[in-house]
């Protein structure tokens, strides 16, 4: 995290499942000041001295970009912040202050919009995680255990109307699952062996799903995509669904 903050990325730590806000709803003072000064500089045709406000707009919005560019340069890295500083310096050296101010304002505004979008996406994922039940019913014994206590290879039961607590594969029978929380599609998705079922989705049918759960499931899928070992021993697809 220290390395990220040194690069000006404003990293922070928050508790798992917390809904801390990563980005503010409103732009930073740098964006607002740069935008206001740039807007005022558009009156330069009526009052020529106002053209200097465009240069002031570039200076007002540049500090965060300069800090990140300096951090990248000290690490011998060439990133977008370094390129933006070069572009702004070039425009200012050529006397095109309006272009320099526009570059800084558009870049800082785009960064704010990106941070806002990431914060909303993170909030959506936190909301999705909060819908996952904290306890899981083991199919073999009917015992309810904590989600973190589910062992590798366990078969869990998911009744109709319940949220799927873990990623897994269906082993027997068929049902329909609502995956709109992940995909945005509101249509029920039929599930039968060996269909994949994801945590956070909901079992809609009147049938009880039994899912085989394995921590290695996602890693095995990555191996299959990257041309890894495809032997049957490495692909745990076993499921039950009465």
Order of helices and strands: HHHHHHEEEEEHEEEEH
Chain-averaged pLDDT: 77
Radius of gyration: 27 Å
Total domains, how many? 2
Number of helices: 8
Assembly type of the chains comes to: single chain
Computed structural class: alpha+beta
Description:
The protein is α+β, with helices and mostly antiparallel strands. The protein folds into 2 domains: 2-10 and 21-131, no CATH class; 135-234, Calcium-transporting ATPase, cytoplasmic transduction domain A (Distorted Sandwich). The chain is built from 8 helices and 9 strands. The protein has helices spanning 2-6, 29-41, 52-61, 63-74, 80-93, 97-131, 180-183, 217-225, and strands at 135-138, 144-146, 155-158, 168-170, 175-178, 189-191, 196-197, 202-203, 209-212. A hairpin with a 5-residue loop joins β1 and β2. The radius of gyration is 27 Å and the shape is elongated. Residues 16-22 and 214-242 have low confidence and may be disordered.
Quick summary of this structure?
With 242 residues, this protein is α+β, with helices and mostly antiparallel strands.
Topology:
Layout: H1 2-6, H2 29-41, H3 52-61, H4 63-74, H5 80-93, H6 97-131, E1 135-138, E2 144-146, E3 155-158, E4 168-170, E5 175-178, H7 180-183, E6 189-191, E7 196-197, E8 202-203, E9 209-212, H8 217-225
Antiparallel strand pairs: 1-2, 1-3, 3-9, 4-7, 4-9, 5-6, 5-8
Helix pairs in contact: 2-3, 2-6, 3-6, 4-5, 5-6
């Amino acid at each position: 995290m220290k390395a990220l903050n040194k690069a000006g990325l404003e990293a922070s730590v928050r508790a798992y499942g917390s809904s801390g806000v990563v980005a503010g709803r409103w732009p930073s003072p740098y964006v607002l000041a740069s935008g206001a000064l740039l807007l005022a500089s558009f009156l330069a045709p009526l009052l020529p001295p106002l053209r200097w406000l465009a240069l002031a707009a570039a200076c007002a919005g540049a500090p965060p970009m300069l800090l990140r560019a300096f951090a990248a340069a000290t690490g011998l890295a060439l990133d977008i912040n370094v390129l933006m500083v070069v572009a702004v310096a070039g425009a200012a050296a050529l006397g095109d202050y309006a272009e320099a101010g526009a570059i800084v304002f558009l870049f800082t505004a785009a960064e704010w919009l990106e941070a806002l979008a990431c914060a909303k996406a993170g909030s959506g994922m936190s909301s999705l995680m909060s819908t996952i039940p904290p306890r899981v019913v083991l199919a073999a014994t009917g015992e309810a255990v904590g989600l973190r206590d589910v062992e590798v290879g366990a078969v869990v039961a998911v009744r109709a109307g319940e949220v799927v607590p873990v990623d897994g594969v269906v082993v027997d029978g068929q049902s329909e699952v609502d995956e709109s929380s992940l995909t945005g599609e509101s249509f029920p998705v039929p599930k039968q062996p060996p269909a994949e079922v994801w945590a956070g989705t909901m079992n809609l049918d009147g049938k009880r799903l039994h899912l085989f759960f394995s921590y290695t499931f996602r890693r095995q899928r990555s191996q299959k995509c990257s041309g890894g070992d495809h032997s049957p021993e490495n692909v745990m697809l076993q499921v039950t669904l009465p």
